[in-house]
Amino acid sequence: MTFHQFAYRNVIRNIRIYAAFFMASFFSVLVFFIYSMLMFHPEIENGFLGNVPIIWMVVAEITLVVFSWFFIFYSMKAFLEARAKEFAILIHLGMERKQLTRMVFLETIIIGFISIVLGIIFGYAFSKFFFMIVREILMLEDLPLYLSWEPFLLTTAVYFSAFILISLFSVHLSPEKKVIDLLNGYKNIQIDVDFTKRKAILGIVFILSGYGLALLTTRSNMIIFSVFIPLLIAVGTYLFFTDTTQYVVDKIKNKRFLYWKKSRMLPMAEQTFILKNNGKMFFVMTIVTTLAFLSIGLLATLSSYTSQYDKLNPLGLIYKGHIDNPMEREHISSLITELEEKGLSYHLTRFTVLKQTSSFTNFEVEVFKESDINNLLFSYGYPMVRLSRGESMFIPYSKDSIKELAKKKVETVLLENNVRITIDQVYPELIFPSSIVSLNSIIVSDVDFRRLVRPYRNSPQYEPGYHLFTFDIPQWIEAEDVGVPIQQEVAEEYVKEKYTLPYYFENAGLNYSYILSTYSLFTLVGLLVAAVFLLAAGSFIYFRLHTNLEAEKKKFDVLKRMGISNSELKSLVTKLLFPQFFLPWGVALCHSLFAFFALQNIMKNFVNVSIVKEVVFAFVFLVIIEIIYFNLIRWRYIAYVRE
């Protein structure tokens, strides 16, 4: 029998041990190939698939590659540890380390080749189904299945090189061990990891500090906090699993009324050993699970904003310009022409908005005329505004502001023209997007508006008012191509240090297409990345259990000879596995929840959207998946130790 035949037969004989490593490799290849098929699709034109930039798809592909390599490397390490006894026997029989490295290399290449071939075959078979989903998400007319050499070559090159490098690194980086240690198994070698009370407390302090900063995150400090929060959480999580958990278990063991109760001593003693030897693995698992939770949560957040966009932006087109804007007539005429050419119905309302100084705050207030507002409300189908002389009404700038302003009553004087008004009501619906009107905007009667003949006292340094043109378009999504040149001029001006254009333009349909494409991109990337992350997080525990199955079975055999019942065995296994599964996932869930507290605060400031319902739904869904996965692993574990 040649050396190559020996390596091949090793793979066949150890199919149970190789199965976990093969499945991890196969799934990574499958996901990468499907995504490569999308990235190289011939429908991509000028770097876009629909409205999704190809550069972000490349970034997502690189993310998948990096994490897949790490995932396969960890799987390889676990796979080698599971074969510790076999390696010990071969070394004892005279095999040199070079020969052992060559054998592992050949076996890895065989498994890698099989996983690449099957991953590509199954990936291509499922590509059509994946394209159907992508077509619906991106709202494309057609996304046919195609055959091209690029995704096949890229996937083969990336993963074949990965298996070569990982197999070499895994063997060379593994520490030299005596034959007796290999016979006892990697996991049975006691690793002395001493914890300290100072580090244990520091881990909790860092995590709580990160949570506190997350709760205090606002629009003004989000950039600086986004640097410090992940750093605090990462360091705190590492110390939590290396020192804090051991410190807590040690304290429990010193409480005899807790430690000695029923069969609690057995799983507690085992947890001490597990925490000492797997603290770093639990840390990696927590970070990976947090990334998976954040990916799903971000999808839910974008879904929430996308679904509420039409309520937050009731107008299709908005044109806002200075009173003496020289481009006003030309721009409005071009917008009307484009709408009519597309056959879109619209309702145009022209506002003249004046600025005045309020005696109540001594700040400026934007004043709208009652008849102008009613003209727009008529197109909405909303109730009309009825104001008498001296009466005024707040214009809400967000949904939440309606409740706040309803409680206010302000008696003020518009100082420039000595017009006394009482503001004791707010319009009960959102009339304008929050980006258009200021926080101090009111409606006055036509009689009072005509009395505002003297301009704002800070003019001409500041504009005394502006003209506002609103286009209420029932099918505003179809108007995304209207006014694109004007929108481009406004966008180019916004990136400059100072905005100098005498006008501003906003197309809700065009903005929505950008938002929808971003949501679509994150949906494609997020689902794939989250799937890989969740599989990896669960597999870390599975590989650890799989590596040490023989030793664990011996322990339970001893307990069975001592008379432990089946129900007690199941209870003991549950107590043993539960912390390993749900402690990292529980910490990851807490990290994710506080991350979304910070995101909720930021979104309230920017777009006033609540994401609580969507995030809770996503997290409940994830917890259910984790519980199902835990019960599957527990079922297989119990079945094996009972044999």
Please give a structural write-up.
- The protein has 643 residues and is α+β, with helices and mostly antiparallel strands.
- Helix content is 66%, strand content 9%.
- The protein is built from 20 helices and eleven strands.
- It has a nine-stranded mixed beta sheet with strand order 7-8-6-9-5-4-10-3-11. A two-stranded antiparallel ribbon has the order 1-2.
- The longest helix has 48 residues, at 265-312.
- The radius of gyration is 33 Å and the shape is elongated.
Strand content: 5-15%
Strand order of the biggest β-sheet: 7-8-6-9-5-4-10-3-11
Helix % is: 55-70%
Mean pLDDT: 76
Category from helices, strands and their pairing = alpha+beta
Low-confidence stretches: 186-193
What's the β-strand tally? 11
Care to give the gist of this entry?
Helices cover 66% and strands 9% of the residues.
Record keyword descriptors for this entry.
643 residues; alpha+beta; 9-stranded mixed β-sheet; two-stranded antiparallel sheet; 11 strands
SSE diagram, text form:
Elements: H1 3-13, H2 15-39, E1 48-49, E2 52-53, H3 54-82, H4 84-92, H5 97-138, H6 149-173, H7 179-184, H8 197-215, H9 222-253, H10 256-259, H11 265-312, E3 317-322, H12 328-342, E4 347-357, E5 364-369, H13 370-380, E6 391-394, H14 399-406, E7 410-414, E8 419-426, E9 441-444, H15 446-450, E10 465-472, H16 484-494, E11 503-507, H17 508-547, H18 549-561, H19 566-606, H20 612-641
Parallel strand pairs: 5-9, 6-8
Antiparallel strand pairs: 1-2, 3-10, 3-11, 4-5, 4-10, 6-9, 7-8
Helix pairs in contact: 1-5, 2-3, 2-5, 2-6, 2-17, 3-6, 3-17, 5-6, 8-9, 8-19, 9-11, 11-17, 11-19, 11-20, 19-20
